[in-house]
Amino acid sequence: MAPKNNTRRKFVTDITLTAAAIMAAPAISKASTLFKTDEGYTVGQVMDMFIKTVPGGVLDNTVDTLKSGSRDLKVTGIVTAMFPTFKVIKKAISLGANFIVCHEPTFYNHTDDVSWLQEDDIYQTKANLLKDNNIAVWRNHDYIHRLVPDPITTSLIAQLDWKQYQQTSNTFLINPNLTLAQLIKNIKEKLGLDKVRFVGDLTQSCSSILLMPGAAGGKSQITAIEHFKPDVLVCGEISEWETAEYVRDAVGEGKVLGLIVIGHIASEEAGSEFMMNWLRQHLSGIKVTHVPSGFSLSFA
After folding, report:
1. Of the candidates 1, 106, 204, 299, which lies 20 to 30 Å from 84 by C-alpha distance?
2. How many Cα atoms occupy the beta-carbon half-sphere of 41 within 13 Å?
3. Domain enclosing residue 237, as ranges
4. Are residues 104 and 157 in the same domain?
5. Do 152 and 271 touch, CB atoms closer than 8 A?
6. In what order do the strands lie in the sheet with 197-199?
7. Is the dihedral of CA 273, 279, 280, 281 positive or negative?
8. Angstrom distance (rounded) from CA 115 to CA 248
């Protein structure tokens, strides 16, 4: 097992190479010249620049909308993050950045519907913090996942150092002598995690792995298990009454199947670092900073 610092350096190198490969396409490399003006960039121009590189272009039905601010706002600096938490917003303010590009919701539900939060003081404080500091927040979720290959997944694969084991976009064949306990230890070291949740026999073999970052949902996860028949599913998050119960029943029937739940943020954080690198490559004169939102849950 490589020391943590070496692993981190390797991850940064791998993710930079992955980003560079995607950025090298002619249509992407010319994007910044299509939108740059003498006055810099507006929020809308930065959004359109990225969307232009996505297969299929503009989506009619998407959650990737502005959650605060205006398309016409002139960008002074950009922060990328998984979630635009209070900590992330305050860090953006201290950096002089007025544009946050996040991957997940701002206001506690998938569509950022705030109709039910109008009297909620937590929502009001956060919304006012963004408004008072003239900060635009754009969620880049659907668009970034449509890039081929998906940089959220490829960035996680680079962080785990599993590229050499890859069979399909999300399946891997590793040493057949690797146990579930050893795989858990490896994942924790590579992702800098203190703990993960799991289902299964810690002595079972983990030769074949199915990787599903984020929150794919129980039906998708269970269907994928049936299709690929892995020894273990490594995923971002679950509904505890869905995939975990399916795997527990499989183990109860005597099947070799494990489940490792690393957490949604841990499984997709690297994608926000990819976004930082993309923006740095395509924008001139704009400071772009990735601010980790950290994990929302802790283990007592």
Report:
1. 299
2. 29
3. 151-265
4. no
5. yes
6. 171-173, 208-212, 232-235, 258-261, 197-199
7. positive
8. 39
Region for residue 290 given its phi and psi (left: phi exceeds 0; alpha: psi -120 to 50; beta: otherwise)? beta
DSSP run (H or E) holding 123: helix 121-132
| pTM of the shown model | 0.86
pLDDT band at residue 38, thresholds of 50, 70 and 90? low
pLDDT at 13: 45
Q: How far is CA 88 from CA 99, 269, 280, 287, in A?
A: 11, 14, 19, 16
pLDDT band at 11 (very low <50, low <70, confident <90, very high): very low
Assess if residue 296 is contained within a domain. no
The three-point CA angle 2-272-124 to 5° equals 130
78, 100 Cβ separation under 8 angstroms: yes
For residues 31 and 146, give the distance between their C-alpha atoms in angstroms, rounded to a whole number.
18
What H or E segment, with its residue span, contains residue 209?
strand 208-212
Same domain, 179 and 71: no
Give, in order, the Cα–Cα distances in Å from 82 to each of 10, 44, 105, 238, 254.
22, 20, 9, 18, 38
Sequence letter at residue 180: L
Residues in the chain: 300
- Kindly state whether residue 298 falls inside one of the protein's structural domains: no
Number of structural domains the chain divides into: 2
17 in a structural domain: yes
Judged against a pLDDT cut of 70, whether residue 144 lies above it is answered with yes
Instruction: Say which range, 20-29, 165-174, 238-247, has the weakest mean pLDDT.
Output: 20-29
pLDDT tens digits, one per residue of 190-224: 999 999 999 999 999 999 999 999 999 999 999 99
Q: Which residues are bridge partners to 234 per DSSP?
A: 211, 260
Q: Is residue 300 in some structural domain?
A: no
Task: Report which of residues 121 and 7 the model is more confident about.
Answer: 121
